[in-house]
Design brief:
With about 290 residues, the chain is an alpha+beta fold. About 35% of the residues lie in helices and about 25% in strands. Strands 1-3-2-8-5-7-6-4 form an eight-stranded antiparallel barrel.
């Protein structure tokens, strides 16, 4: 029982908050079919406002060029210092159109090269991955993310050849949450490109950390709904179907996000802040001024 409640109730599926809905060209209030994640690990001491400034320059450039694709940025609160950039698309064709809009524009492409050079000085490493939405493994995942502030990410590595057991495990978890009926939500994605196969990503958005506190009580309700036999079965499936899991917590960063006007109108949190003006230099004293 402890194994199940730790692995499935701690962060991955104890999802009282609103679930995944990232940026799209038409709307930012739907779960994407295709999710692209760019991950940037910053060098020690090179995160914070230094990284915000280079990324906000990138946002201003694509906004000025009216690039159709939008994205959400967030910074790690756990694990290594890094930023994630989440873009969503209805199809690979839509992804291609956004890419072409960015790199077939000579003026924009040159500006992005300049910004990327400055940004690269702050980074230790970067990578990209593409994930596809798994509707049958998700629960109540249609939601508006514009009023959220945090995101929980859980990644599960499924043992090769044990996909059916993983599907059975998820079905049992969904059934127990449905029986407990305390409003759980999550969206699940399967990795397609940019890493090992048989990897699943569970995303849950939160308004505040208060929702994390509720997870302890919800875990008890889940255990009661699953029953002793159900928990035993879950333990067996976890052991046989999964190789590993890890869970991380991130905070949304509006300064590095390129969102729609509708999102900004819905919540001023997403309104880009103007970069700070450099401090004015004090006037030189006439007696000490150099020629």
């Amino acid at each position: 029982m402890k194994k199940v409640t730790t692995m499935l109730l701690g962060i991955a599926f104890a999802a009282t908050g609103v679930s995944m809905a990232v940026a799209q060209e038409k709307t930012q209030s739907a779960v994407p079919k295709i999710l692209q994640i760019v991950r940037e690990y910053t060098k020690p001491g090179k995160g914070g406002m230094a990284h915000d400034n280079t990324e906000s320059a990138f946002v201003r450039a694509v906004a000025k060029a009216k690039v159709p694709g939008h994205y959400i940025a967030m910074n790690s609160l756990t694990g290594r210092s890094r930023a994630l950039f989440l873009s969503s698309y209805e199809s690979y064709e839509a992804m291609e159109k956004t890419t072409n809009a960015m790199f077939n524009n000579g003026t924009l492409s040159a500006e992005l090269d300049r910004i990327n050079t400055a940004d690269g000085e702050l980074l230790e490493e970067t990578d990209q991955s593409i994930w596809t939405y798994q509707e049958e493994m998700s629960l109540n995942s249609m939601a508006d993310l514009s009023h959220m502030r945090y995101m929980e990410l859980s990644v599960y590595q499924v043992r090769p050849g044990h996909g059916r057991e993983w599907e059975e495990l998820v079905k049992l978890v969904k059934a127990a949450y449905g029986k407990a009926n305390f409003g759980a939500h999550w969206a699940m994605f399967e990795r397609r490109y940019g890493g090992e196969g048989d990897e699943y990503l569970v995303l849950t958005a939160r308004k505040s950390f208060t929702e994390l506190d509720k997870g302890f009580e919800e875990g008890k309700e889940f255990a009661a709904a699953a029953g002793e036999d159900g928990l035993k079965k879950l333990d067996e499936l976890v052991a046989s179907a999964t190789v590993s899991s890890h869970h991380e917590l991130f905070a949304f960063n509006p300064r590095m996000s390129y969102v729609t006007d509708e999102w900004i109108k819905a919540d001023p949190f997403w309104k880009p802040k103007a970069p700070a003006a450099p401090a004015a230099k004090p006037a030189a004293d006439a007696k000490t001024a150099k020629p």
